[in-house]
């Protein structure tokens, strides 16, 4: 078993209908803007993420962005500064984010690196690059290189986009222009080796556990953990004879498993999983991936519950549906401002 079928449901929503897709976006925008900002400030579940989404979707709201919960990208000052375009606020928060023992995308150095590249803060980006390379070490049990995340008196070695290898590698790939060719060659060598050693395979399908030692009942097919996030993180990597088949097999798993029962959102829902198809469309130019992305979009539209937040709520779904209309692979506030 490489995924839990009970966490998925049959594909619904009908065939792609751009008119209905645009109506759904308008409905989400109107309801969110009328409700006003949430009490949280960050980009993951708070006002900053929703403010960004509303503006991208054509609704200019003027919400005050309060203090973040710590320094990190997801809930903290780094992400809020990114949305606000506040370089001074970003520079003030960056050192703590880079040194955070979480050492991953949502709370650590990788998030600071992605934000630094989007804001053009190259010196901070170089500091984050040094941190990521200095903490990427060989694990004798895994026989490959992996990062360690430390939080709540726990130590984990995770693999996904939100918290592990895929997210940290994504950030380093985004900053290729600030590293030597030798660094980029070594990055691809380490990355492919780790993915091959941790891949779970079943016929033409591939998934990855949250961590190398995750038990079978903890397998996920989500953006944060599992194949969808690995594909989203690495579909922009240079062509590679061993990486390319794994990414395609990961995309096939997402389609084979079907939409997630737990919701429609980006982090662990149907929209986030569907974004892997848009990434593979960009990488392969095979239109089947667009067709699949749009089918997931129609399903996600029906799954909406009115939940707030960019990464878990309806606005993330709206951005995904908009991306399916525009045929745009870029993930908000990671690939593009």
Protein model, in words:
With 337 residues, the protein is mainly alpha-helical. The chain is built from 13 helices and 6 strands. The protein has a two-stranded antiparallel sheet. A two-stranded antiparallel ribbon has the order 3-4. Helix 5 packs parallel to helix 7 (165-174). The chain is globular and about 50 Å long.
List the helices and strands and how they pair.
Blueprint lengths: L17 H18 L11 H10 L20 H8 L2 H13 L9 H11 L2 H13 L2 E3 L4 E3 L2 E3 L2 E3 L8 H10 L6 H18 L1 E3 L2 E3 L19 H8 L8 H15 L12 H15 L3 H16 L10 H13 L11
Helix pairs in contact: 1-13, 2-3, 2-13, 3-4, 4-5, 4-6, 5-6, 5-7, 7-8, 7-9, 9-10, 9-11, 10-11, 11-12, 11-13, 12-13
Summarize the structure.
The chain has 337 residues and is mostly helical. It has 13 helices and 6 strands. The protein has helices at residues 18-35, 47-56, 77-84, 87-99, 109-119, 122-134, 165-174, 181-198, 227-234, 243-257, 270-284, 288-303, 314-326; strands spanning 137-139, 144-146, 149-151, 154-156, 200-202, 205-207.
Number of helices: 13
CA-to-CA gap between the ends?
38 Å
Radius of gyration based on Cα positions: 19 Å
Q: Give the low-pLDDT segments.
A: none
How would you describe this structure in keywords?
single chain, 337 residues, mainly alpha, two-stranded antiparallel sheet, 13 helices
């Amino acid at each position: 078993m490489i995924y839990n079928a009970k966490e998925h449901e049959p594909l619904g929503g009908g065939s792609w209908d751009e008119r209905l897709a645009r109506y759904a976006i308008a409905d989400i925008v109107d309801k969110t803007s009328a409700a006003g900002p949430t009490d949280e400030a960050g980009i993951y579940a708070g006002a900053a993420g929703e403010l960004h989404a509303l503006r991208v979707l054509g609704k200019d709201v003027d919400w005050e962005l309060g203090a973040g919960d710590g320094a990190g990208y997801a809930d903290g000052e780094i992400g809020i500064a990114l949305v606000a375009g506040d370089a001074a606020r970003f520079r003030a928060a960056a050192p703590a984010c880079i040194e955070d023992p979480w050492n991953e995308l949502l709370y650590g150095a990788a998030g600071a690196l992605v934000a630094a590249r989007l804001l053009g803060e190259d010196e901070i980006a170089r500091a984050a690059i040094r941190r990521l390379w200095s903490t990427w070490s060989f694990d004798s049990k895994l026989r490959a290189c992996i990062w360690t995340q430390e939080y709540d008196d726990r130590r984990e070695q995770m693999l996904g986009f939100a918290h592990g290898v895929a997210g940290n590698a994504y950030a380093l790939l985004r900053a290729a222009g600030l590293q030597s060719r030798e660094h980029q060659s070594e990055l691809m060598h380490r990355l492919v080796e780790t993915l091959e050693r941790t891949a779970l395979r079943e016929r033409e399908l591939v998934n990855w556990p949250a961590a190398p030692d995750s038990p079978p009942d903890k397998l996920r097919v989500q953006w944060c953990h599992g194949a969808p996030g690995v594909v989203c993180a690495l579909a922009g990597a240079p062509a590679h004879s061993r990486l390319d088949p794994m990414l395609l097999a990961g995309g096939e798993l997402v389609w084979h498993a079907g939409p997630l029962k737990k919701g429609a959102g980006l982090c662990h829902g149907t929209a986030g999983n569907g974004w892997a198809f848009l990434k593979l469309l960009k990488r392969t130019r095979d239109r089947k991936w667009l067709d699949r992305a749009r089918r997931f979009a129609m399903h996600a539209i029906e799954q909406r519950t009115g939940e707030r937040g960019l990464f878990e709520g309806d606005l993330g779904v709206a951005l995904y549906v908009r991306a399916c209309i525009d045929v745009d692979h870029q993930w908000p506030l990671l690939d593009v401002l």
